[in-house]
Structure formats: C-alpha cells, structure tokens
Amino acid sequence: MDPAKELEGIKKQLEEIKDGSRNKLSMIVFSGDLDRLLAAFIIATGSVAMGLEVVMFFTFWATPALRDKKKKAKGKDIFGKMFGFMLPRGTRKVKLSKMNMGGMGTAMMKYLMKKKSIASLEEMLDLAAELGVKIYICDMSMGLMGFKQEEMIDYPGVEFVGVAKFLEEAGNSKIQLFL
Amino acid sequence: MSDEINVNVKMDLKGLACPLPVVKVSQQVKKMKVGEVLEAETTDPGAHADFPAWAKSSGNEILKTVKEEKSTKFYIKKLK
Questions:
Q1: Cα end-to-end span (Å), chain A
Q2: Does residue B69 fall inside a structural domain?
C-alpha cells in the first residue's frame, strides 16, 4: 500500500469529521414556558446567522407549543382529551415560567416585547422556518400526551422522531443544548 | 478623503432587537458579492458585541463603526 495515498485518505476523513461537527447545533427543547421557548428560538435563529445548521428536538412540555390552534384531531381516548384540553394549544397559549400571575404577567411581558420591538414567539417560529431551522418532534411525547400528527403546525420539513435520531444529529454537532 | 467607504447596500435595522439585526445582516451578506460593502444601521446595543463576533466567525470584516446620536452604523465588507 502506498503510504502517501493512505495519508491523503486519512487527511480527507479527518477533514470530513471536522466539517461534520463544526457546523451544527442540536438543541433539546423540553420546556413549554414562553421565556424558555423564546430563548430557544433566539439561539436557534442566531446560530443560523453564525453559519450553523440548527436542529431543534421538541419533547415533553415543549410539544404542545407546536400544536396548531386551528387543527383538531379526532379519536382520542379520555387521557388524550384531558391532555389536549389542559395543555396549551400552540405558541400563543404558552406562559411565563415566572411571574405569570394568572396570565397577567405573560400579557404584560408580551405587551412590553411588542413595545420594544422584540420578536414574538410566533414571529420567531416563522423566522426559524424561513432560515431553515430543522424541527423534530418527539414521537414518544406525542403518544404519551395523546397528540396526533394532524393537529401539529405545518412547519417545513417537520419530522416525528425518536431519541436515536436526535443523538445522531447531536453526535455531529459542535454545540448541544438542553432547554 | 482616502478612507471614504464605497457602500453597495444600505440596511435600516433601527428598532430591531436581538437576534434580528445579526440574522438580517447575515442573510443580506449572503446575497452580496465578495468585496461589496454593507452599511447596517442599528439601535440595538447588543450589536456592538454581536456584529464583530458574527464577522469573526463568518470570516467577514467590519471596516468601520460610526456612532451617531441614536444609532450606530456598521460598515461590513464581504470577504467570502
């Protein structure tokens, strides 16, 4: 075997590994709180600006934030109906983790954000879609809470996946976050 | 003057808050040709740290930063 050729091959492989892990950010979005979701989307869209590919994996309490308020799913059992009723239907319904004060705090925060031209969660979601941020939704959370795919938002390229898919992405990422 | 900057594109980002200025600038620069200069005017105080950080990691150059009364103008040259 030609050592020069072999070295060239190893160099190429190394370059590929470096490239693969240099340009991606993988994020687990666990929280369904307005403040944390906002932070998640600010980091996600900012990362695209910084030249990173971004993958967001929505699980547990973050899952209902991606429901479409106009869509309804039929054929749920009693628990599914209960979760469906009690958890927020979409980004407009999520609340602050602190100082919610029966919704007053959240309303005040939204008012202030508008006044200071800070993008709302809805605008951030649109921006993320425009920038090509990839969204995965945890299939297990969906099943657990009785959500169906037909009641989730129409986000370009949204996929319903398991933990292995996230880990595959995370393994190739430079930055991994849990929010 | 010799340090006169030839601006190709101007962007008004006044009033926009994090992360929008840096997101919009990065999108705009993507559309421009190498060597062209973008003038981005912003009122976001975070931009003073964000724009240089963005320029460094994206491999572009901030030629000049001009502080005005209520805003700041960044002159960004696309290097690649």
A1: 49
A2: yes
Residue B2, domain member (yes or no): no
Annotated catalytic, B18? yes
CA-to-CA distance for A41 and A148, rounded, in angstroms? Answer: 24
Asked whether B60 and B29 are in contact (CB, 8 A), the reply is: yes
Q: How far apart are CA B49 and CA A102, in angstroms?
A: 37
Contact residues on chain A for B16, CB-CB shorter than 8 A: 117
Taking the whole predicted model, whether its pTM rises above 0.80 is answered as: yes
Asked whether the predicted pLDDT for residue A93 surpasses 80, the reply is: yes
| Domain extent at residue B14 | 9-77
Q: What is the CATH number of the domain that holds A134?
A: 3.40.1260.10
Burial class (CB in 10 A: 0-12, 13-18, 19+), A145: buried
CB atoms A117 and B17 under 8 Å: yes
How many domains does chain A divide into?
Answer: 1
Quick one: average pLDDT of B22-30?
A: 93
**B58 in a domain, yes or no?**
yes
List the domain range (segments joined by +) for residue A48.
23-68+75-145+162-178
CB atoms A42 and B19 under 8 Å: yes
